[in-house]
Amino acid sequence: MGQTMITGAFFLLLITSVISANRMIGESNATTYEGDAVNLAVDVARSVLAETYRKKFDAKYIDSVYQAASVFTSPTALGPEVSEVFTPSPDVAPFQSFARYDDVDDYNGYQRTVDAAGVKGFKVSVSVYYVNPDTFAKSTTQTYLKRVEVSIEHATYMKTKMTFSSLVSL
Amino acid sequence: MAIVLDIIGSLAIRGAIVLVMLRLNVSLQQTLYLKTANANVRSNLATLVAIIETDFRQLGYGASTTPFLVSDSSNVKFIADFSNNGTIDSVYYYLTGTEVYRRYNSTSAVRIGRGVTQFKFEYYNVSGVQTAVLDDVVSVKLSVAMEENYLITNSSDGQQYRPSATSVHQFFPQNL
Q1: Phi, psi at residue B66, to the nearest 5°?
Q2: Residues of A with CB below 8 A from B169's CB?
Q3: A146-170: per-residue pLDDT in tens?
Q4: Among B10, B39, B101, B159, which has the minimal tally of Cβ within 10 Å of its Cβ?
């Protein structure tokens, strides 16, 4: 009876380990799905950043004369002009931003919902602000540098919001 | 008699222990294999997209005409002064079976991806609408899916999977 009891105790210990291992395997699969979603999110964010690169630096930018930074759009007024506002918001495919917006800071406050391959419902939001050229910190006055921040999240597959940013210069 | 029963009982449980341990070992191996295979295919896909993205960034640079020489859903050939020496070069991406090749000028084509199950280009105009008019193209969307050529059993649900990865990337070349 003693042998059976000792072996049974080991068996119970083993079963506990198996349950723990199975839980680990399940979490591993969840991580795989999250990894796929993150890869797609990176593609989406980079596409939005690439879109902004084609836009001019500022609505008041003129390429034929020297302009002091102070003539550019005020930091508090960054965003689309009245004529560039569209619905729906968040934007959905086919995205209107590329046709409607003509300068980088029009994207400030912009949002879009993206369905990427196999994963629907990525939420993208963009903010644009001037940065100090020496410290790259947010500036409260106009400068020749703007930072475009693209944040992306997904309710199911991403635990945290991811943010990508890029500097755009004159 | 009690001793005999004790030995038989413990042997039976020990047998079960061995079986459970073997099964656990197999499951862990399969999980590890699946993770590694997924990582490999993702890495291969990322490399493929990075190569294409680098060329697309320069698409049309130095060209005075429409840069597209071939542009259909799974092949694209375009020109640009890639080496910035005043000479226009061409690069050609095409899908053959499940392999993607890149040919630079008239050099031999180089395979840059295998196991490619989707390699699709879509061309968009300034309004974000798909177009077939090459002069109107301002952005190109690339959808690529890649998978390994072997099946792996997922230990958690017993289903067989082919490790795969997908990427959708939209390029906005500066020179279009």
Answers
A1: -60, 130
A2: 43, 46-47
A3: 999 999 999 988 888 999 999 999 8
A4: B159
Number of neighbours of residue B141 by Cβ within 10 angstroms: 15
Residue A111 β-bridge partners: A125
**B64, A57 Cβ separation under 8 angstroms:** no
- Interchain CB distance below 8 Å, B170 and A96: no
Show residues of chain B in contact with A54, CB under 8 Å.
138, 172, 174
Each residue of A98-152: pLDDT tens digit? Answer: 889 999 999 999 999 999 877 889 999 999 999 999 999 999 999 999 999 999 9
B16 touches chain A (CB under 8 A): yes
ipTM of the complex: 0.73
Which among B10, B126, B127 has CB closest to A3? B10
Write down the pTM of the prediction.
0.80
- Between CA B159 and CA A23 the distance in angstroms is 17
